[in-house]
Structures are given as C-alpha cells and as structure tokens.
Amino acid sequence: GIQVEQSPPDLILQEGANSTLRCNFSDSVNNLQWFHQNPWGQLINLFYIPSGTKQNGRLSATTVATERYSLLYISSSQTTDSGVYFCAVGGGVNDMRFGAGTRLTVKP
Amino acid sequence: DAGVTQSPTHLIKTRGQHVTLRCSPISGHKSVSWYQQVLGQGPQFIFQYYEKEERGRGNFPDRFSARQFPNYSSELNVNALLLGDSALYLCASGMMSYEQYFGPGTRLTVT
Question: In chain B, how many domains are there?
C-alpha cells in the first residue's frame, strides 16, 4: 500500500514564527488532505489538495504530485495552531492512508 | 448543515464484550469510512462503504464488521473485545475519491 511520511515529527515555535510541514508519499494518489487534530480528537479539514497550491488565511499548501510530496505552510503562528497535523492520501478505493503526524507546539 | 455525527462519545467495555458504534454522514454523502486511532499514531483504515456495499477493508481481524443502511448511516461492530481495541474510532463521510469529512469520534476503553 501507499506509504506516507511526515516531517518533522515534532516542531516547537515561538508565536509569530513561520513553519513548513512536509508530507512524502510513495505512489500516485487521487486525494490528498491536510488535517489539524484538536485536543479532543476532532480532525479539522485544512486543505483538500491532490495537486497545485491553495491558501486559506495564514495557511497555505502545495502538492507536487509528480514528485510525490506536499507542503503545509503556517505563517505568523499562534498558540491556537498547536496540535497534531496529519497528511492523508487516498488511492482508488478512497481508503485514506495517514502519516504519523507532526506535533506542533507554539509558545507564547 | 450538520457535520458527521457519531455516537456514543465515550464507551467503557470489558474484555470479551461486544460493542456497536454508530455514524451518520453529512447529508448527500454516500460513502462512509471507519478508522481506528490509537494513542500517538495516525488513524488506520478499517472499512469503507459506498452505496451500502463494502468497497474496502483494512488489515483488521474478522472481529471487526460494519454495515451501511439505506439512509447511508453506518454501524461498526467489534466482537470479543481485547485491551488493544482501546482507541478513538473515527467515521468519515464523503463522495468517492473526494474530500473526506470526519466526525468527532468515539473513544472506546476496554478494561
């Protein structure tokens, strides 16, 4: 099956700093999503981005499908950005494969 | 519009018991998928149902089963519970191969 690797596993930032999270995947995919998991376990949709670039406020994402990676950018980080960020990719049947996540801690 | 709903929120069971978890998809979504997330890991795919048929199954034992009803809601059943089944169980709905939306999850504790 498709392998998904996220880096870094942990990231600690000061409020106001910028960060880049990376997701590498091992095969072509039909679906790629970025999620933020809040402390209660809810997965919040950030981006649906099988290819191209999207922006939503301080967050943006780029997927280069031909090179099998995606990047999530967080600018001017805030303490509320803390949590675990997951990349998930899907093949034909839509059984999404998740990476192990990046745990982000933003300090005031 | 209501999001994906799951019930119950929390559940405590004893080893060997059976559990049923429920999920209602977003209106108009015909696909429901189930995931298990143990502490410190990413969610792992269990099942996908589309139009009431099983379309995918992850690497889980036969103790795990699911079904989808005519209204597209779904149940996940786990028999003969083990301590290792303690996890957050997540349900997602969507249209095939498009954006998936997750419910708040059911936290199962097996003692």
Answer: 1
Domain ranges, residue B47: 5-110
Contact assignment for A93 to B92 by CB distance below 8 Å: no
DSSP conformation class of A108: -
What pLDDT digit, counting tens, does each position of A45-91 carry? Answer: 999 999 999 999 999 999 999 999 999 999 999 999 999 999 999 86
Q: Does A56 touch chain B (CB under 8 A)?
A: no
pLDDT tens profile B65-101: 999 999 999 999 999 999 999 999 999 998 766 789 9
Nearest one of A9, A15, A8, A7 to A81, comparing CA atoms: A15
| CATH code for the domain in which residue B46 is found | 2.60.40.10
CA distance A76 to chain B (A): 26
Chain B residue numbers with beta carbons less than 8 Å from the beta carbon of A33 are 99-100
Task: For residue A92, give how far its alpha carbon lies from the nearest alpha carbon of chain B (Å).
Answer: 7
A82 contacts chain B (CB < 8 A): no
For A4-107, the fitting CATH number among 2.30.300.10, 3.40.1710.10, 2.40.40.10, 2.60.40.10 is: 2.60.40.10
Nearest CA in chain B to A30: B97
For B10-39, give one letter per residue: b (16+ CB within 10 A) or e.
Answer: eeebeeeeebebbbbbbeebebbbbbbbee
